[in-house]
Design brief:
Two copies of one chain form a homodimer. Chain A is mainly alpha-helical and about 190 residues long. The interface between A and B is large, with 65 and 65 residues. Chain A binds a DNA duplex (28 and 28 nucleotides) through helix 2, helix 3 and strand 3.
DNA sequence: CTCATCATGTAAGGAGTTACATGATTGG
DNA sequence: CCAATCATGTAACTCCTTACATGATGAG
């Protein structure tokens, strides 16, 4: 159910079409909550049906149309309510650590490949999250800038501080995963 | 698709009924891959249909029956193939960091509660994982002991080493999450 | 005899994945 | 005029969740 709140988080800054939303999404919340367009468009329709957002058809060129969505007061309330309610944690389902626990069943080569892939995977995430962190600190993230424009002065510091806090946590996690996999490679060397 | 490999990992040690499997599961692989019985029983049926395991009906008392499953050679091969193939990573979907990034929209109280809950959540996991780690090192984990009984001497060290490696990683992750949330609480204090 | 535990599920629904489908507009 | 990108989806499928359902056996 977090997808709709991720979408609301973006739409609360200002109205967007599904297409623009999806682009913004990929460059902001998408770093913590992935969603493909095939999920975003239907979810927007559902949210409209539930009264959280409203879409207006806009003409574009001769025959083109696009739906521009804005958050309704109910949608705004729903977002704040969600923010103030306890978070539902997902059950652990960790394929990498599952595999790591049985790595003796893999060939030494495959074990090595697995750990290298793990490093590559998290280095990819790390790059994303570090990039975001840089944009947050330099105020060059377009979403954040738009957001700060609609934020009262005394709230700006908080807004930035929490974003930095969130992404710092992600960066640390990526670094920890990489360090862990490197230790695994060392372990493989030791075990021969 | 990892569930079936998690189940195979346990069944490879020796035949088990769905019920026993489910119990063992909760105390071993369940720490990295959660699955309720309502998912385990049907998955076992599917795995049987796919020829990875075979179930034998055993009588129990007067009218009671239970199906005891064992891994077929195909099942064994499937497990090893999976272990040797690249792991499919799931897309990031992290409700906690999503919320953290927008914590300025929560009331200060709710923000505090969120971080306290986060700490409690990960302390719960930490306890589980640390417990497992202790059982691994003291060789008091029943699954591991049974596993070592069917493992060649020269493979025992590897078997234990990888389990320790996996759970150490999980413990570190839990500690990092807790440390992160504590820093969040400090940040809240500073922001007033 | 009764309660804990053994034993095995089904049913309905939500969330997410992958692949496919279609057409409009704008810049070069 | 042609390619990039704008724009919005559907369809089929798997996986997971939640809640419910049912009955047998063994220990005290």
């Amino acid at each position: 159910m977090s997808l709709r709140y991720a979408l609301l988080a973006i739409l609360r800054v200002g109205p967007l079409s599904g297409y623009d939303l999806q682009k913004q999404f990929a460059q902001s919340v998408g770093h913590v909550w992935y969603a493909p367009d095939s999920q975003i468009y239907p979810e927007l329709r559902k949210m409209e049906r539930d009264g959280l957002i409203e879409g207006e058809e806009q003409v574009r060129g001769e025959r083109g149309v696009r739906r521009v969505y804005h958050v309704t007061p109910e949608g705004d309330r729903a977002f704040v309510d969600w923010m103030n309610s306890p978070l539902e944690y997902q059950r652990v389902r960790d394929p990498a650590h599952l595999r790591a626990a049985y790595l003796e069943s893999a060939s030494p080569d495959a074990a090595r490949r697995f750990l290298h892939d793990h490093i590559a995977e998290w280095e990819g995430e790390l790059e994303q999250w570090r990039g975001e962190l840089t944009h947050i600190e330099a105020l060059t993230n377009p979403m954040l800038v738009r957001r700060l424009q609609v934020t009262a002065d005394d709230e700006r510091e908080r807004t930035i501080a929490f974003k930095r806090f969130a992404y710092e946590g992600l960066v640390e996690r990526a670094l920890a995963e990489i360090a862990w996999a490197r230790r695994g490679l060392k372990l493989l060397d030791e075990l021969g």
